[in-house]
Amino acid sequence: MNLWFTETENSNLAVKYRIKQVLAHKKTKFQELLVVETERFGRALILDGAVQTTIADEYVYHEMIAHVPLFTHPQPQKVLIIGGGDGGTVRETLKHRSVEEIHIVEIDPEVVAAAKQYLPELSSGFNDPRVTIHHLDGIEYIAGCQNEYDVLIIDSSDPVGPAVGLFQSQFYRQAARALKDDGIFVAQTESPWLNFGLTLPEIYHNIKAAFPLTRMYICNIPTYPCGLWSFTLGSKRYDPLEVNPDKIADLGYRYYTPDLHRAAFVLPRFLQDLL
Amino acid sequence: MNLWFTETENSNLAVKYRIKQVLAHKKTKFQELLVVETERFGRALILDGAVQTTIADEYVYHEMIAHVPLFTHPQPQKVLIIGGGDGGTVRETLKHRSVEEIHIVEIDPEVVAAAKQYLPELSSGFNDPRVTIHHLDGIEYIAGCQNEYDVLIIDSSDPVGPAVGLFQSQFYRQAARALKDDGIFVAQTESPWLNFGLTLPEIYHNIKAAFPLTRMYICNIPTYPCGLWSFTLGSKRYDPLEVNPDKIADLGYRYYTPDLHRAAFVLPRFLQDLL
């Protein structure tokens, strides 16, 4: 079929995916939602024109956003995920036996519904008794939290549209307050090669201002433009680089490994210089 | 200007770059050569429809293909580069003071001519007295070499068209013979997410059969499809993982660092499993 979805990164760069079938397409209250079956990467969730996740490579993003902070904390019990409506991050979080309670704050119920219907490989964890989903604004939700979570994961879309407030200094200060005294924060923090509204150094410095220890790590996501993607970890006590790789249990990974836990923090020179 | 170059990875995936200007476009004896000025990545060399290098990100590929093997060897003096007609690899190789003699075997003189005219940032090293350029077939050239080089770098295009023979077992065995007893080989070995003719595991195993020690390392190249790119190092004696990072001099890098020398060899689980 000569049907294509084109992701336009900016006015000068675009990526085109051949589509087998459009499975869902609607305007929700918050964004334009598209679920397609691509020829190359299988089913894909697309929000406001940007690929969020695909069946073929979703494990890269979800393993890296979940296991790096969860293994940095010695005993994570209570976890908050803001965004994450496709379910991949909670699926990975549930693999940690110490975790007793997970709250997901996904503003758009239609994203969760689409994931349940079209992405069962990702959304299986939504029915786990440890999980509660709140369809609320993450900024409002977190304003009511204090000293409550061990790990906080910001699994958001780009800093345009509904997620823009999740990249601001004020939100990161609230996030730090929502964490316990030894809590750990992580957020997806975009690509150094692109600029959707806020640049990666701006986001990094907003996080750095809110936490005693801040470290960026990277991975390669083939369906994110230019491939290189960053996460920024903010910590009140534990250093992700001090995790003993021998203590990292094998929970069934496809991208993450004990050695990669540390190697992901080794940044190329140009990225060090940006920060 | 609404002028676009589209790189078609396969029939299901494509990347589009907006073009300011077409600087050169010709059919050479070996391939279709295009030099364009892109809006996002500056000037780009494109061969047979595939972006080879751009001004904005060329340093990633060239630093990683040159410095990893050159710092693995304690005293590289004589270096052979097969391909490399844009000049970026020889520019990086020339930064190593121990290097006395570099031979470049680039089959297509028109690539070198285009690099000299349009990519002076890359091609500056061609005029260095230590450098000799041979416009010959790399396979034929190497058949005449024995026990001659300290480092051999295969800086080729994809395993389709003129470069296909550079990915075969027989060529790798000849490459091993061209090296001294403690020589080091490296080749760009494609992406695990793509398949141009030969898969990454096939190429890796062809190299592994020719060398006592074989190790793959990776980097992120934003203008290569899906971003993740691999190199495979074959060695007769020295192990790249035993290089002391404190002994890696700062030769003015933009991507490579002493810590990245080691971290680049830490592969994601799916890539370990592929090999």
Describe the fold and architecture:
Two copies of one chain form a homodimer. By secondary structure, chain A is an alpha/beta fold. Chain A folds into two domains: 3-54, Spermidine Synthase, Chain: A, domain 2, CATH 2.30.140; 58-274, Rossmann fold (3-Layer(aba) Sandwich), CATH 3.40.50.150. Helices cover 26% and strands 32% of the residues of chain A. Chain A has nine helices and twelve strands. The first copy, chain A, has helices spanning 58-72, 88-93, 109-118, 120-123, 138-143, 169-178, 200-208, 258-263, 269-274, and strands at 3-10, 13-27, 32-38, 42-47, 50-54, 78-83, 101-105, 131-134, 149-155, 179-188, 213-220, 228-235. In chain A, the strands form two sheets. The first copy, chain A, has a seven-stranded mixed beta sheet with strand order 8-7-6-9-10-12-11, with helices on both faces. In chain A, β11 and β12 form a beta hairpin. The longest helix of chain A is centred in the N-terminal third of the chain and has 15 residues, at 58-72. Chain A is globular and about 55 Å long. At the A-B interface, β2, β11, α8 and α9 of A face β2, β11, α8 and α9 of B.
Mean pLDDT of chain A: 96
CATH architecture of the largest domain in chain A: 3-Layer(aba) Sandwich
What portion of the residues of chain A fall into strands of 2 or more residues? Answer: 25-35%
User: In the CATH scheme, what's the topology name of the largest domain in chain A?
Assistant: Rossmann fold
